[in-house]
């Protein structure tokens, strides 16, 4: 029955949508001065099936385990860095939010162009709308040459680009409570109330943070979403000073020798030894026989005597600990950790976002788009089963960038194909009902 679907119909729809989303996208920016960096998260939707390590490399060499930890995905499982994550999966990527040219942005991402890449494809597809082609062009001092749109001109293979990515910190607080900010690319079909609800915040809060005049955002806009977080109080001398962990997630620190989690019961940072690194310094609380994270309780007539060994930061290669003792009215139960899950193998249409449709290029607006290369009927071969779906894999036609400090990424699924796949899928779903 899928074959009865007319490509022309889908194409007409595609053009209509592309034209509707042509408006300039808005991004929330935070002015800054000085050179201090802070912690932020980038909301990234995978444009292809990718290994954890590939996503990590794409974003300036984030540690794969840290990437998993920030998404409460099992970072300690054997081979976790090589797990394949499905196209369409939404991830929070930890980012060092620097102060550059007077505004907060993440500037540690370097991308090596692959054959056939254009600035528009790098921005809209590879970085899923987090960067714009114009911003990448400016950041790399690439002038416009010739009459053609420079954003659609093929880049030289191997050409290295700085990719500035939007982030804000706003003092890592929201309404005077610790918060970490997620840069979220608004997707087709999103509404501000729905985005607010899915991050357990209010429309008012999102409007205040983003200085919006009304509760309306357009696809491709980048909103800063405050996420409640557990803050640390490590001294400035600690290399992990300012560590902040979003509620429901984990972070790795002290050379992957310590893992800290936040929530779900309270927003007190809770750290324990991590077993990811071969050789780690001692995690024993000084002058005691207890280890980092140990909590002992003694019920007394005056209340519960609670002793705990907390984490005080990574200072000069030493895991500093703090032994706290105090009386509490009631003895606490065993510590509740945020649930760690296995990375999903497929993305459920209901629970994840479709690939972004921000800032379509002129080729799409003009209605010129190549069909899927292999059979010419790539999209209708999408399988639809029980609510989950898989996009057709496109055979790797591009080489990888040179190895080194720059990132590699899986082959590009061209944006028209990506959009087409999404729409065919939605249409199929519609026709099945
Ligand atoms: C951050 O804190 C500094 C001083 O602590 C203050 O001057 C500044 O206005 C604050 N910025 C925001 C966005 O809250
Ligand atoms: C933290 O997350 C848990 C669920 O994971 C939720 O029940 C709790 O309300 C959240 N806390 C805050 C302050 O948002
Ligand atoms: C102390 O912490 C270590 C490391 O997390 C753990 O293996 C051990 O079971 C804990 N002991 C007690 C008594 O809680
Ligand atoms: C609580 O326990 C610690 C050792 O576990 C002990 O040193 C301290 O004196 C106790 N405090 C009270 C008030 O009982
Ligand atoms: C760290 O080590 C250096 C020398 O190795 C020393 O000068 C400095 O005071 C130490 N810092 C702390 C906080 O211990």
Automatic annotation (TrEMBL):
Residues 1-25 form the signal peptide. Pfam families: LysM. PANTHER family: LYSM DOMAIN-CONTAINING GPI-ANCHORED PROTEIN 2, OS02G0769200 PROTEIN. Residues 363-411 are annotated as: Disordered. GO terms for cellular component: plasma membrane. This is LysM domain-containing protein. PROSITE patterns: LYSM. One of its GO terms (biological process) is immune response. CDD domains: LysM. Residues 370-383 have a biased composition (Low complexity). GO terms for molecular function: peptidoglycan binding. Gene3D superfamilies: LysM domain. InterPro entries: LysM, LysM_dom_sf. It comes from the Eukaryota. Residues 109-163, 182-225 form the LysM domain. Keywords: Signal.
């Amino acid at each position: 029955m899928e074959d009865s679907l007319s490509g022309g119909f889908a194409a007409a729809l595609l053009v209509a949508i592309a034209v509707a989303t042509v408006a300039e996208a808005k991004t929330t920016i935070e002015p800054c001065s000085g050179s201090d960096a802070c912690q932020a998260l980038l909301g990234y939707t995978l444009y292809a099936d990718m290994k954890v390590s590939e996503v990590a490399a794409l974003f300036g060499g984030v540690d794969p385990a840290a990437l998993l930890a920030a998404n409460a995905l099992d970072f300690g499982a054997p081979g976790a860095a090589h797990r394949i994550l499905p196209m369409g999966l939404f991830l929070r990527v930890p980012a060092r939010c620097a102060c550059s040219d007077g505004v907060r942005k993440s500037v540690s991402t370097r991308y090596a162009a692959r054959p056939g890449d254009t600035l528009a494809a790098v921005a809209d597809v590879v970085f899923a709308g987090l960067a714009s082609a114009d911003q990448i062009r400016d950041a790399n001092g690439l002038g416009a040459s010739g009459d053609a749109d420079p954003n659609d001109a093929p880049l030289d293979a191997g050409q290295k680009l700085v990719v500035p990515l939007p982030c804000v910190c706003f003092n890592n607080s929201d309404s005077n409570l610790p918060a970490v900010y997620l840069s979220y690319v608004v997707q087709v079909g999103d509404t501000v109330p729905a985005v607010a609800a899915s991050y357990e915040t209010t429309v008012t809060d999102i409007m205040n943070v983003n200085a919006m005049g009304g509760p309306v955002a357009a696809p491709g806009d980048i909103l800063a979403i405050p996420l409640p977080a557990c803050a640390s109080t490590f001294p400035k001398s600690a290399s992990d000073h300012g560590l902040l962990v979003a509620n429901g997630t984990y972070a790795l620190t002290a050379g992957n020798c310590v893992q800290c989690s936040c929530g779900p019961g309270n927003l007190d940072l809770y750290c324990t030894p991590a077993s990811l690194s071969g050789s780690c310094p001692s995690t024993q609380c000084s002058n005691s026989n207890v280890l980092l994270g140990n909590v002992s309780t003694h019920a007394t007539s005056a209340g519960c005597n609670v002793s705990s060994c907390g984490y005080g930061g990574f200072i000069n290669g030493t895991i500093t600990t703090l032994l706290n003792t105090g009386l509490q009215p009631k003895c606490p139960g065993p510590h509740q950790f945020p649930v760690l899950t296995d990375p999903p193998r497929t993305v459920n249409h209901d629970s994840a976002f479709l690939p972004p449709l921000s800032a379509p290029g002129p080729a799409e607006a003009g209605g010129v788009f190549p069909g899927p290369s292999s059979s010419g009927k790539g999209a209708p071969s999408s399988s639809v089963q029980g609510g989950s779906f898989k996009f057709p894999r496109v055979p790797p036609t591009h080489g990888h960038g040179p190895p080194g400090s720059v990132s590699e990424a899986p082959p590009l699924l061209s944006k028209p194909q990506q959009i087409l796949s999404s729409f065919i899928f939605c249409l199929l779903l519609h026709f099945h009902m």
